[in-house]
Design goal:
The chain is α+β, with helices and mostly antiparallel strands and 146 residues long. It has 4 helices and 6 strands, in the order H-E-E-H-E-H-E-E-H-E. Strands 3, 4, 5 and 6 form a 4-stranded mixed sheet that branches. A two-stranded antiparallel ribbon has the order 1-2. Strand 4 and strand 5 form a beta hairpin. The N terminus is likely disordered.
Amino acid sequence: MTQAIEKRNSVVDAKLVTDKGSTTIADVVVQKVAGLAAREIRGVHALGGGATRALSALRDRIPGATASAGQGVSVEVGEKQAAVDLELVVEYGVPIADLAKSVRGNVITAIEQITGLEVVEVNINVNDVHIPSDSEGDEPETARVQ
C-alpha cells in the first residue's frame, strides 16, 4: 500500500515546469485520456448525454468520420491540476455506486500517469441506463396483424 502511494505521489510530483522549460497539457488531451479510461470499465455503455449520443450516431454514418474519444467528458486543466466531469450511460444491472468508484479510480490513475497532472476531482453524472432489447442484432419483429 505504501509503495502504491509513493508511486502515485512521484507521478503527480513530476515537474511540468522546470528551469529548462515548461510543458503544458491541452484540455483535449486530458479529455481524451479521461474518456478512454472511463470506457475501459465494464458496465459503461457509452459517454455523453442524449443529444451528444445522437450526433455521434450521425457521425458514425459518415464515411471516414471517427467518434470522439472525449465525448461526454468536460475538463478544466490548470498548470498542475485537472478536474473532470463525466456523463455516463450504464448497463442495466450494474451497481452504479461500484461502477462510479471504478471509473473514478481508473480516470484518476490514467490522467495522473499519462500527463503528470494531479486530478482534484472526477464528477460523474449517470444520465441513462442501457437496457438491451430482445431484438438487438436480430431481424425486425413482424407485425402482430396483417
